[in-house]
Amino acid sequence: MHEVKDTRRARVRIGYDGRVHKYYLGPEADKRYANEVTMLKHLEAKGCPFVPRLLEEHPEELYIVTTNCGNIAEQISSRKMASLYKELENYGIKHGDAFPRNITYDARSGRFCIIDFEFATNLETGEGLVLEDIKRAYDTKLFEE
Question: Model pTM?
Answer without folding.
Answer: 0.89
